[in-house]
């Protein structure tokens, strides 16, 4: 009887440790997220399931063109691409991104640009036009969805405080046909 009780106790301890480790990993390191909507098409699709790397933002700030998940003002999490970093001047002119006066290629947008025949994918704007600020403020980022015509992003909600960023994501694990890394 004592041997059975000891064995039961060992199983219970192992289960509690496993649950504790899973909770720590989920809360502090990695978490699943489901893409909700079409704002990141063609890069991400509605219903894609991804892994959010929370660890990356506990040690540093995002890089330009990272895909990040953040707490949005609407009490939900958004997934968007980082376009502007603190101190950057952002401008779109003739469907080209300019950061601090330098033109940047956005290869992830080419698929949509080739399909268009009724104007640019991204309308012309400056950071001053859409946020009232000359540069991205310290501690904030400017984000946009890849589906520029149908994305609620920093052009509408303003810059995002880096403290609101949960983490970055670039791994789709479901559906299987989309399994892999995204750029």
Q: Could you describe the 3D structure shown?
A:
By secondary structure, the protein is α+β, with helices and mostly antiparallel strands. It has one domain (30-181): Umud Fragment, subunit A (Ribbon). Helices cover 26% and strands 30% of the residues. The protein is built from 5 helices and 12 strands. It has helices spanning 2-29, 56-59, 110-115, 127-131, 154-157, and strands at residues 30-34, 49-53, 67-71, 77-84, 90-93, 96-99, 102-104, 125-126, 140-144, 160-161, 165-174, 180-181. The strands form 2 sheets. Strands 1, 2, 3, 4, 9, 10, 11 and 12 form an 8-stranded antiparallel β-sheet that branches. The longest helix has 28 residues, at 2-29. It is elongated, with a radius of gyration of 21 Å. One of its GO terms (molecular function) is signal peptidase activity. Residues 8-174 form the Peptidase S26 domain. It is an enzyme of class 3 (hydrolase).
């Amino acid at each position: 009887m004592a041997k059975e009780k000891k064995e039961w106790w060992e199983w219970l301890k192992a289960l509690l440790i496993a649950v504790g480790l899973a909770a720590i990993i989920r809360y502090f390191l990695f978490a699943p997220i489901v893409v909700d909507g079409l704002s990141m098409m063609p890069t991400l699709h509605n219903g894609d399931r991804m892994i959010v790397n929370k660890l990356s933002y506990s040690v540093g700030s995002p890089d330009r063109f990272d895909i990040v998940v953040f707490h949005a003002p609407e009490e939900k999490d958004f997934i968007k691409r980082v376009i502007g970093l603190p101190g950057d001047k952002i401008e779109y002119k003739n469907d080209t991104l300019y950061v601090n006066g330098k033109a940047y290629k956005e290869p992830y947008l080419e698929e949509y640009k080739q399909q268009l025949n009724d104007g640019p994918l991204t309308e012309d704007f400056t950071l001053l036009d859409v946020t009232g600020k000359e540069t991205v403020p310290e501690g904030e980022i400017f984000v946009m969805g890849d589906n520029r015509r149908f994305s609620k992003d920093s052009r509408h909600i303003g810059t995002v405080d880096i403290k609101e960023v949960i983490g970055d994501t670039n791994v789709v694990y479901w559906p299987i046909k989309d399994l892999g890394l995204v750029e």
